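Q: Could you fold this chain for me?
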Amino acid sequence: MQRFVNNPDFVVDDMIKGFVKAHSDIIVHSNKNKRVVKYKNAPVKDKVSIVTGGGSGHEPAFLGYVGENMLDAVAVGEVFSSPPAKAFLDAFLEVDSGKGVACLFGNYAGDTMNVKMAVNMAEDEDVLVKYVVATDDVASAPKEEKHKRHGIAGGPLMWKICSAKASKGASLDEVIETAKQVVDNTRSICVGLSPCVIPAVGKPNFTIEDGTMEFGVGHHGETGIKVEELKPACEIAKEMAKTVLDDLECNKDDELIVILSNLGSTPIMELYILYDEIEKIISSYGVKVYKALIGSYVTSLDMNGACLSILRVDDKLKELFDMPCYCPALTIN
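A: Sure. Below is the predicted structure, expressed as structure tokens.
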């Protein structure tokens, strides 16, 4: 393994220190917990606070979305591991303005367990926390069991829109209802071409043979829907787009926000090759792309692959998405 690391056991702490230094204009380290990063102006007076958390290795998620009109704080876990309940609790306490906290995170067993514990502990501190989990990964469970699906690159869409809702003065319940709307209308699919290497392990944590691709692979290497021979980009893009659109059941003239994120090592050039075909398929369904984000939004260390996320939007969601924001991972003017 050839990597820019010091001690592989301390990559997360080293990363956080560098991240905070690089973005000190907008982000600060929590005084309560070394694994909590927060917006420098949080708590924001009279605003519902937005918090998330998750395992490292998905940068710029999660800590890259902390900033102005974005997340107020993030609890940071070890690589591919949930932050402990204490980190979530400290994030809540750091940014609560008295209007309550919305914790918006991906649907993984460890995260859900630790958030529930932290919510109960926050009650003892007289801090009201409600949560919503992202369930956009269509490959992780059948449609009739959507509540069991994992959350992947749909997370940034939920964070962006709900952060804007909070910044506009919405109540905690209104923010939570908006989060549920985003979750209900978001779908994602990943395709992996080669596995990733966890620094402390020093070798791939799963296998994708040369000349093959894994359709529906999870962000941590969870088994996908199927393993296929590697196809041309146009065929991969078509399969990804049809899988997501069919599950979402779009109507003619629906409008979509699209994220096409690399999974770590895929060149941006190749994402645009995929997107060219993806937009053709979207148009063939009679629906329209309102906005498209192409780049690194949720990754998986150095995995070679791509994640397609699609959110169906109405006029209210479009207005919230377009609200200006500033954070390391996303700036909208």
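A (continued): The chain has eight helices and 14 strands.
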